[in-house]
Specification:
The chain is mostly helical. Among the domains are: 122 residues, no CATH class; 217 residues, no CATH class. The chain has a two-stranded antiparallel sheet. A hairpin with a 7-residue loop joins strand 9 and strand 10. The protein is elongated and about 90 Å long.
Length: 705
């Protein structure tokens, strides 16, 4: 009998078998609609044929043949759920047994067939428990896929193994064996730090679920559920020049434009970046194994248990080395974590697409951990752990509301992927669930020509409607990079307290401009983002040279970096943009010929000293500042000028004069590009703040532009 006849016979038999299943469960309704939905009838032959060519139907595969020579010939309980139809149905409880557990070993000879994924319980399944113990709920038909494509280990189990060993970080023992995540743990990659599939280092924050575009953010969204093949023809709608699955490895989206592997290129694909990082990790693993663990190591991805003793220490797998008796037996806790992460990336061939940012962070941290004890660390000097700020899913700007599960309406415009489009469309903001970062859809109306949302004028906190000009794309940036306070709101707050300039009031609290108010700095007096003192004059918008006077002119809109090379045409060669000096005069009075950034830094330092002197001598309560901790200003209990670990009391004895100066100091700190956005405006404000809180002596020798 020919292979073709055998295939046809097999398809007919499978169709008949599936018809029997349907007869036994006539009320079954699939969870997903669309073409090919069975609706209680036997599946069409074309669906069965599509399945028959998939990996799930490959009865010759090691995944189904591994136990043929076992004694007894059966698939163990620990493996049956994903390596047999019988085991999966047992796990679901559709054989009458308890759901959520496999009760008995499964017979050999089955594959993952229709009955496994289309049984009544499989169809209604909407949640999955991962090896870490985390349950993901509210799932679509992908829940059926994720039950097996989740791996078998996690940070939790690795930590348990290490704790049980009782070893110190760099102590080795043959009893500490390799922990293998298993094959194709795509769901663990996809959900990232939500399920802790890779080893996540304590104290570090990691990317959560990869939020792709709607409709293509789940297993069934991207894969044909029967053939398992990727829906490549649908990818090309956004990813041009994609004609095959292999072409997906060439994709590099703007939201990941940093040099992850430090090889000097951001033009290569994200896949290539991750491959470069994995190579660096392997280099670090081998260096550590030889130098610290004392036993050289090699990796062979096709042979269990994958890591072996490099008997001749030549760095490669030679004949006879990749054998179980030669398995690596000198793991330390530090080495085990790194090796686990190496394997977690290696065994998900789609890791770059499922959650490339997550794997980049995990690989980076693994190298950094090994580097801590290497005499010659693997260089990460040019490598990057995280994507640019707008796309950094680990940043506090996006993770701040994880515990609450909702970002309030006052914050969603700038801190969720959906908030800005909603605001531009409706004119108001509402609460949204936390986002992993901004998305393409935050700024772009579509993914064909990537047109931007239009925002012809933007209302600032002082009430002014400002614009770069009608149709200028940088107006979009101003919606968020404007701060949240102004002279107007600070004056109103002080007026409500009803006290004199040097009187303490419990009605006063610190007013925080918020972060990166670059737009307000740029527009100067028009936006009044800083506190402008009564009777003083201030410059308006900084008029830089034409072509370099908007956000997009000077910054790469996705990397957010300054387009430094363009600056050299006028400013000449320099090592750092902060070295640029165009203003005349010695603003800070220190006599140094320095960049304008240095001038402002000295004035800012003087302002902090004046604030602290005023708080101690006039208010009677010393004050200290911590730029990284809300509410930024704290009671300096020991009067040493800094916020110590045990000083957590927010400053509460404000006077109007102290509040105005502290507000302006915070403003100058929270716009790190103030020297470029509008140096004269910021210098004027720092000078006036110093003079107001410290008197004329505080500005002696300084120059107000």
């Amino acid at each position: 009998m020919t292979r073709k006849v055998l295939l046809i016979a097999g398809v007919l038999l499978l169709a008949a078998a599936f018809a029997v299943w349907q007869h036994d469960a006539p009320g079954r309704v699939q969870a997903q609609g669309g073409e090919g939905e069975c609706k209680g009838e036997p599946c069409p032959a074309w669906i069965v044929e599509a399945w028959a060519g998939s990996g799930h139907a490959d009865s010759t595969a090691e995944a189904f043949r591994h136990w043929d020579n076992a004694d007894p010939q059966e698939i163990p309980v620990d493996c049956a759920k994903c390596h047999s139809e019988t085991g999966y149905i047992d796990f679901l409880g559709d054989d009458g047994s308890a759901a959520g557990v496999v009760d008995a070993a499964a017979p050999i000879g089955t594959v993952v067939s229709c009955s496994a994924c289309h049984s009544p319980s499989a169809v209604s399944k909407t949640s999955v428990v991962f090896p870490s113990g985390v349950e993901i709920t509210g799932l679509d038909a992908s829940a059926r896929c994720m039950e097996c494509h989740q791996g078998r280990e996690s940070k939790v189990s690795v930590d348990e193994a290490i704790a049980a060993s009782g070893l110190g970080p760099d102590d080795s023992s043959p009893d500490l064996g390799f922990r293998n995540i298993h094959y194709f743990a795509a769901a663990s990659s996809l959900y990232g730090s939500e399920v802790h599939g890779s080893y996540e280092y304590d104290g570090m924050r990691y990317q959560t679920k990869f939020e792709h575009v709607p409709g293509y953010d789940s297993c069934v969204g991207c894969h044909n559920p029967h053939t398992l093949e990727l829906k490549v023809n649908e990818c090309s709608a956004c990813h041009t020049n994609v004609a095959s699955a292999e072409d997906l490895k060439a994709i590099r989206m703007p939201g990941s434009m940093v040099d992850y592997d430090g090889d000097g290129s951001v033009e290569e694909s994200l896949f290539d970046e991750l491959e470069g990082m994995q190579a660096l990790l392997y280099q670090a693993i081998q260096a550590y194994a030889s130098e610290v663990a004392g036993t050289p190591i090699v990796y062979e991805g096709h042979t269990y248990p994958y890591f072996f003793i490099d008997t001749n220490a030549n760095g490669t797998v030679d004949e006879g080395e990749a054998a179980f008796p030669n398995r690596y037996n000198a793991f330390t806790p530090r080495l085990l974590r790194a090796a686990y992460n190496f394997q977690a990336y290696e065994k998900d061939p789609g890791a770059f697409a499922h959650n490339g940012k997550y794997h980049a962070q995990v690989l980076y941290d693994s190298i950094a951990s090994l580097n801590e004890v290497l005499s010659q660390p693997v260089s990460l000097a040019q490598a990057h752990r995280n994507p640019p700020g707008h796309f950094d899913g680990t940043a506090e700007a996006f993770r701040h509301w994880d515990a609450e599960g909702e970002v309030p309406g006052t914050c969603t415009k700038c801190h969720t992927s959906e908030g800005l489009p909603f605001y531009l469309d409706q004119g108001v903001s509402i609460a949204f669930p936390p986002s992993t970062s901004l998305a393409c859809s935050t700024c772009h109306t579509n993914f064909q020509d990537f047109a931007l949302y239009q925002s012809n004028e933007v209302t600032f906190p002082n009430g002014a409607k400002l614009t770069f000009g009608e149709g200028v794309d940088s107006n979009l940036c101003l919606n968020c990079h404007q701060g949240r306070e102004s002279t107007v709101s600070v004056n109103q707050h002080i007026a409500n307290a009803g006290v004199g300039d040097d009187e303490v009031s419990d009605k006063l609290r610190f007013r925080n401009i918020h972060y990166f108010a670059a737009g307000a700095t740029l527009f100067g007096h028009e936006a009044q983002g800083v506190y402008e003192y009564e009777g003083k004059e201030y410059v308006g918008r900084f008029a830089h040279v034409p072509g370099f006077d908007t956000c997009q002119n000077c910054h790469n809109v996705h990397q957010l970096t300054v387009q430094v090379q363009a600056c050299t045409a006028c400013h000449g060669e320099f090592e750092d943009v902060e070295d640029i000096r165009m203003m005349t005069g010695d603003l800070d009075g220190d006599g140094a010929q320095e960049g304008v950034a240095g001038e402002l830094e000295t004035m800012r330092e003087a302002l902090l000293a004046a604030i602290q002197a005023y708080a101690a001598n006039t208010v009677g309560t010393p004050i200290a500042y911590n730029a990284a901790a809300y509410p930024y200003w704290f009671v300096d209990a020991n009067g040493n000028g800094v916020v110590d670990a045990d000083e957590a009391d927010g400053y509460a004895t404000w006077t109007p004069r102290l509040l105005r100066a502290a507000y302006n100091y915070q403003y100058a700190v929270k716009d790190p590009g103030a020297f470029a956005h509008n140096a004269k405006y910021v210098a004027e404000v720092l000078y006036d703040s110093l003079q107001d809180i410290g008197g004329d002596a505080a500005v002696a020798g300084m120059t107000r532009p």
